[in-house]
Amino acid sequence: MKRRRTSMTIAAALLAAVPATAHAAWPGVNGRISYTQRVEAAGGVGANRNLFAMALDGTSSRLTSHPNNEEQSSWAPDGLRLAYKRLEESWILEALDGSGTTTQITNDPGSTNPFNTQPAWSPDGRALLIRSSRLHPTVRQGDILRVDVDPTSPTYKEISLVLARPGDERYPTFSPDGTRIAFRGDDDGLDLTGDEELFIADADGTNVVQLTDDAAVDSAPAWSPDGAQLAFESTRDGADHEIYVMDLASRSVTRLTDNDVHDEGPAWSPDGRYMAFTRADTRTSPGDIWVMRADGTEQRALLTTPIIEESPDWQPLPTTVGALDRYPRTACGDLSLTPGGVASIVAVKVPCPTARRVAATWEEGADAGTPPAQIEGFTCTARPHSFDQTLVECDHAGSKKGVSFVYRAAA
Predict the structure, then answer these.
(1) In whole angstroms, what is the distance from residue 378 CA to residue 381 CA?
(2) Claim to verify: residue 249 and residue 182 sit in the same structural domain
(3) Which member of 67, 71, 107, 373 has the greatest number of CB atoms within 10 A?
């Protein structure tokens, strides 16, 4: 049995060891959710897994079609590139237009049974964290590497070691301000033995702090867009995995799902209002993609099929409206999740009723074919982003006030 830490002195020391959350650059407004789906055999190609992207109304687009398994997608902060694993190496999908333009960014052809997987982007789009066994290929235990990537052309540049500990590290991810990383570590290198814990560290791998210490499986950490919380999966309340969220300042943990099925892999929406996750009857059953409010309410399935859908990640549509990197922002909700509608309204120094009114006025004009450039003192610009999505930014003259949202072109 693992020793449980109950001392208030130890808890206080751990809190002091964690630096205060720096002001994070919010990733943007909500785009589509990428996910892995099992594709049935066709045209002489065996069954495998490819990547898809889905809007909240269920509209889905296929992103990759390689005959080898493609999984574990991670959106770049520009929302236009996608890192993922193909077989046991990491790749980047460079275009979302169906051209299939890809670049391999890791390659260990001379190693025995290696892997370089679970890529996760830095907030500036210049690097990826990778879980890699290149230091321990025979036992396939992961450490954390950093791959520097040219932001203008996603080609391999340099690989450096960030963190190597005894056991197995998984699910590395940058904090939204890029100063820290979170990951899951264990001591014995064996999966699901109860010593899996959550850790954070500085971005260079120093100053490691253990966040959990229990006899459960704690895994798959995901930073909230403001950097103040970590969502994760855990067996701490039973054999099945559930989704939890930890407040990093107080270490308080809140349970978000409570059922007899398997919930894993939470991913926050860029505006912080939702989480996507995988739900399955058991750990080995085919999963489906679900979403819920960030407080665990309004859980609903986006896909329910007999085949595998798993590992969601949420596309950001980056916006700088109202100097979002310097001022607090407010998520003001959706007007419509369907084509011809506005969603993921965010505001800076603007009340939500005003932000929604600006968005509704712009939506009405867009649906009529003439989106307005001026609304209540705001100057609005729109640019197509990806799929059927248009990013709209409305800045107020002479101030740092702003409203931003995503508009989906009418069908």
Answers:
(1) 10
(2) yes
(3) 71
Residue-wise pLDDT tens digits, 98-110: 777 888 888 876 5
Q: Is 323 domain-assigned?
A: no
The DSSP string of 87-128 is TTEEEEE--SSSS--EEE----TTSSS--EEEEEE-TTSSEE
How far is Cα of residue 162 from the mean position of the Cα atoms in its chain? 20
Residue 2 has what pLDDT? 35
Backbone angles phi, psi at 33, to 5 degrees: -100, 120
At 178 the pLDDT is 94
Map residue 367 onto helix, strand or coil.
Answer: helix
Q: Are 379 and 387 in contact (CB under 8 A)?
A: no
How many independent structural domains does the chain possess? 2
Alpha-carbon distances of 87 from 103, 107, 113, 137, rounded to whole Å:
14, 11, 11, 15
Shared domain check, 153 and 14? yes
The neighbouring-strand residues paired with 126 are none
Triad 268, 274, 279: Cα angle to 5°? 80
Contacts of 203 (CB under 8 A, 6+ apart): 162, 174, 175, 178, 179, 180, 181
In a domain, 31, yes or no: yes
Whether 359 and 297 share a structural domain: no
Q: If you ran DSSP here, which 8-state letter would residue 45 be given? A: B
Q: Which amino acid does the sequence have at 400?
A: K
The residue written with tokens 């403001």 in the block is 226
Per the CB < 8 A criterion, the answer to whether 139 and 190 are in contact is no
pLDDT of res. 329 = 87
Question: Residue ranges of the chain with pLDDT lower than 50?
Answer: 1-23
* 110 and 47 in a common domain: yes
Tokens of 155: 């080609």
Are 19 and 148 contained in the same domain?
Answer: yes
Q: Indicate whether 273 belongs to any domain.
A: yes
| Residues 335 and 313 placed together within one structural domain of the fold | no
Q: In one letter, which amino acid is 294?
A: A
- pLDDT tens sequence across 375-394: 999 999 999 999 999 999 99
Q: Is the dihedral of CA 147, 151, 156, 157 positive or negative?
A: negative
Structural domain including 28 reads: 8-317
Rounded Cα–Cα distance for residues 131 and 295 (Å): 30
